[in-house]
Structure formats: C-alpha cells, structure tokens
Amino acid sequence: MTKKSIQFNRRQLLTGAATLAVAPWLIEGQIQASHAKAPMLGPKQPKHARFKLGEFELTNIVDSESFIDGPYPLIGKNATEQEVRTLMQQNFLPETKYQPGFTPTVLNTGKELILFDTGNGDNGFIPEPAGGWLAKQLLPAGIKPEQIDIVVLTHGHPDHVGGLIMHGKTIYPNARYIISQIEYDFWTAKNKHSGDIEKFAKVFVDNTQSLKDKFTFIKPGDDVVTGVTAVEAYGHTPGQLAFHIESAGNQAFLWADCAHHHVASLARPDWHCVFDVDPEQGAKTRARIFDMVATDKLTVLGYHMPFPSIGYVEKLNDQSFRWVQHSFQLK
C-alpha cells in the first residue's frame, strides 16, 4: 500500500467519522420534526406535599391555583403603586398579577387527624371551579374527609371557612371544630357589620350555623392537642390565631394569614393589607411574627405562600424580611 493510498484512506475515515458524528443530530432533527405537532400540555404542579416533623406528619394541599390582580392595592394600600411595582420588578415578578396560594394543612399526630382551615369551598373568595379544591384533593392525598377528627379555623375569612359546608353538605361530619372565641363572636355579631365585612360575616354564619354545637373556643396559649399551641396573631381579623407545632424536638409555625404575598408582605410588613380588619395592628403582628420565626429559625407553614407553602424567614434588617422556600430536607 502506497503512502498516497494511506493518506486517502485516512481522509475517508475522517470524513466518515464526521458523517457519523453529524448523523445523530440529523436523526434527532427528523424525530423532533415528526413530533412538532404534539399538543401543549400546560403548566402543572403537585396538588399536595407531605413531610415529617418529628413524629408528626404534615400534608399541605392546594385549594386553588388562580392568579389575581395585584399585589397593589391589596397589599401596600398605604404605599404608592409605583413603590409596589418597583419591588416586584426588583424580584423578577409580574407587576399587576400574582398567585396568592391557598394551602390548608392536615396534621397527623399519630392519634388525631387535624385540618387547619377548609379553603374556599363553593362560596369563598375563589369558589368552585377555580378554587374550593380541598375536599376533592384529600382523597388523592390519602385522606378521607370523614377521618378528620378536628377542624381548626385560624380565622373567619371566606377562603378559610368556605369549605366547611359545600352544596349544603357537611364535609367533615365526624370532626369537632375549634376557633378563637373572639373571632367567632366578631363574625356572628348581629347588626354590627357593613360593606365587605358584612358579606364575609354572612359566609361565616352560613358555613358554621349548622355546626355551632360542635365548636370549642380557645385563646392564645391554649393547646389544641399536645404539641399544638395557639399563638395570638390579631389584626388581620380581631381573633386570628397562629399555631406553634412541636414534636420530638422539631418545631414548625403555622402563621395563617400573617402574609399574603411572599415578597411584598415580608419586605414591607408595614404595608397595609386591604383584608386586614385592623391594618395598624396587622402590621405590628406581621413584624412581631416575622422577627420571631426568623430569630428562632422556625419552619413556617404559610397559607398564602407559594405552594408547597413551607419555608423560612430571613431577617434583612429591623424593618425587612425575606421568604426562603424550603428545600424539603426535613428529617
């Protein structure tokens, strides 16, 4: 074999190798082209998330995935629209739409099955079909409504009590119900309210009147069960309660509606929320609760935080905090 023929064959080999290297790309391109007309499937996220806290088990369940207008003026009504828009820009978020999240929590202590809040149901802020999913999402999460032993209502707003009764039917027939006495008295007071508060009160009464004989009333410092203690969180509503949860040395804090937006509410706890019955007290409560959970490094369950609605709070300075989404490495 001559030197010329060897060089020629080498060139052929290199050319062949290049062709083989290109071929998969050509084939892949053909495959991609053949499937180019597959339908778009749309956004998708899990509907429940489960994790352990010591010997307890917690399950967070999506009640709605709706987007609403805001955050201004729902949050920051005592600020300017531009201030709120600028904060959204700085955090890579839309300026005029957000997903508030609606996330009830089920706690299994090993002895009791406790549901915190019942979602929108069919007469809450975001009713069926856009919301009110909790009752239907319990079964896929492995929980039957009739298994619920205790329903805890952190407060009386429609997106927390709307799922007690749906289509005229009691959803949790074997449960007893717990709420702050202050909260219950506020929403059931006759001839006291007007405007939106009157509408919200009607939803509360409509969803609780058939269950009133099953209610137990608690105050800050009282235990729901061993390991679950009520904490004062007044302002958003007159008797809102948060809950400290502890098992085997592991702690979490369920803060109900201490925050409505995972950036705006924490970065500026002094910004008023339109849903706060007492805006000034609501701001003070936010600052106090945020400082506490940040200082104590507590795992937080936040009803309106982005699903799976569990995380931590970082203190940036004396007036500002940051939500840190949990990475699901709880023991």
Description:
This protein has 331 residues and is an alpha+beta fold. The longest helix is centred in the N-terminal third of the chain and has 32 residues, at 3-34. The chain folds into 2 domains: 1-40; 48-325, 4-Layer Sandwich (Metallo-beta-lactamase, Chain A), CATH 3.60.15. β14 (241-247) and β15 form a beta hairpin. The protein has helices spanning 3-34, 81-90, 134-138, 158-161, 181-188, 195-208, 264-267, 279-295, and strands at 48-53, 56-61, 68-69, 97-98, 105-108, 113-116, 150-152, 165-166, 169-170, 176-180, 215-218, 223-225, 228-232, 241-247, 250-254, 299-301, 310-317, 320-325.
Task: Give the helices and strands, then pairings.
Blueprint: H1 3-34, E1 48-53, E2 56-61, E3 68-69, H2 81-90, E4 97-98, E5 105-108, E6 113-116, H3 134-138, E7 150-152, H4 158-161, E8 165-166, E9 169-170, E10 176-180, H5 181-188, H6 195-208, E11 215-218, E12 223-225, E13 228-232, E14 241-247, E15 250-254, H7 264-267, H8 279-295, E16 299-301, E17 310-317, E18 320-325
Parallel strand pairs: 6-7, 7-10, 10-11, 15-16
Antiparallel strand pairs: 1-2, 2-5, 3-4, 5-6, 8-9, 12-13, 13-14, 14-15, 16-17, 17-18
